[in-house]
Every structure is written in structure tokens, then in C-alpha cells.
Amino acid sequence: MFIWCRDHRLHHRYSDTDGDPHNSKRGFFFCHMGWLMHKKHPYVIELGRRIDMSDLQADWMVMFQKKYYYPLYLLVAILIPTYVPVFFFGEHWWDSMLVCYFLRYVLSLHSTWFVNSIAHLYGTRPYDKNLQPVESWFVSIVTLGEGWHNYHHAFPWDYKAAELSDYINHSATFIKFLENIGLAYDLKTASPEMVLNRIVRTGDGSHYLLDNEMSRAAVTACGPLHPLNPTYKSTLKPPRRQGGR
Asked: Residue 152 is part of which domain span?
């Protein structure tokens, strides 16, 4: 949790530059999984030391998870998921391990990594055409709502990570449920007026309500032109390449 939050803060502050741990300007493979196989860029190391983590360092639960990460991982990610089918359904240990740990882990990792790759490369930019992240229906399907990435980078404090909380956005629904039972509070969201102003000022014209003919015609895909096609993207001029910092 601690390490992920640090990298995610770097990703937002230095998005798609050399200070971004999974800089999408370095290509699909790198931002999807290659960044975990490479040495970190010197900017990522340098800027990672400067990023403010004091709020998480003051949270006993986060620091407990950081301190006991490996035993907790062994227990929660491997032993418990593997043991349940063995105990309740009589599965063989090895079969249970293959499905409930290895297969589950591979699927969950690649689904998560789609947010770093597909949701930064193949989609539209209805909220800010100057940002690299895009809106991806496909990624929202496989991640339960985390594919509305252009909005998320335009309004990173919005708990919904999307304009709509009730449209392919189970994450927002769950957070709202936690608020209702008292386990989440002070949820922040962008006002409709703020969102509208951003769409009009910087959007690429592809918003589902405020789109235009030119922007609709600029959407293409490899194969069927359909929002669930992961190659679905706008052919409008992409954001210009930014500097290293």
C-alpha cells in the first residue's frame, strides 16, 4: 500500500514524463508491465525521495501493512485463497494453488496494468485534450470502473474517478456504500459546473453530451468501431511530448 501510494503520487504529479514510474510515452509494453522489469529512471528515484508521504507515515494501519508486508502477503494472498477450496470443496492443494493464486494473480495484475497502458493510449479525452490519459470503456469493464482515466487526471481528488458514479463504476458505488456505513467520510467530488467548464475549455469534443461532428469522426479502432474495443481511440492530435520533469 505504502509503495503503491508513493508511485501513484509520482504518477499524478509527473504524469507521462520521465518522473512517472510507468511513463506511457515509453510505449505500451513499458507502461503496462515493463516498468517493473527495468531499473527506475533516475528522475523517479530522485523525485520519489521528495514526495510527501507524511500522512501515510502517520497512519498506523498503513505502516503495519508496510512492516509486515511479506507475512501478510503469504497469509492473505496465498494461504487463505488456496485453503478455502481445499477445505470446503475437497480440491487438491496444487489445483487450488494454480487457480486461486496463480491464475487469479495474473488476471488481476493485467487488469490493473490496463489502467497504466490502455487507459493512457487508446480512448478519448473529453475533459482535457492536453492530458495523455483517456476514457476507456474496455478498461472500466475489466477494472470495475477505473477506466475513466482522463476525468481522473483532470479531477484527481474526486472519489468517483469518473464523472458518473452509476455507469460502469462499481468502485465508486462501493466507496459510497462505505460512507453510508461510516467507514468512509469527507468524500470529495468536482461540482457539475466545474466539470462543464473544463469540458468546454479543454475537452477534445468527444463528451457523450457535448460532442461534435468533427470529434465523432475522429474516433477510430482496429477492427469494429465500438467503445468496448480496447483499440478504440481518437485520431485528433495527441498531447505534445512534455519535458523530463
From this structure: 122-234
Query: Quick one: 107 and 128 in the same domain?
Result: no
Pairing label, strands 233-234, 219-220: antiparallel
Quick one: cell of 56? 501515510
pLDDT of residue 12 exceeding 70, the answer is: yes
Question: Hey, how many other C-beta atoms are within 10 angstroms of the C-beta on 126?
Answer: 27
- Measure Cα distances from 104 to 81, 142, 145, 147, 238 in Å: 10, 13, 19, 20, 35
My answer on whether 215 and 182 are in the same domain is yes
Does residue 242 fall inside a structural domain? Answer: no
Number of domains present in the structure of the chain: 2
d(CA 123, CA 236): 11
Dist. CA 2–CA 8, nearest whole Å: 10
pLDDT in tens, 136-171: 999 999 999 999 999 999 999 999 999 998 899 999
Alpha-carbon gap, residue 177 to 205, rounded angstroms:
33
Last residue of a domain, one of 98, 118, 138: 118
* Cα–Cα dist 162/176, whole Å: 14
Contact 174, 184 (CB under 8 A): no
| Residues written for the chain | 245
Under 8 Å between Cβ of 97 and 103: no
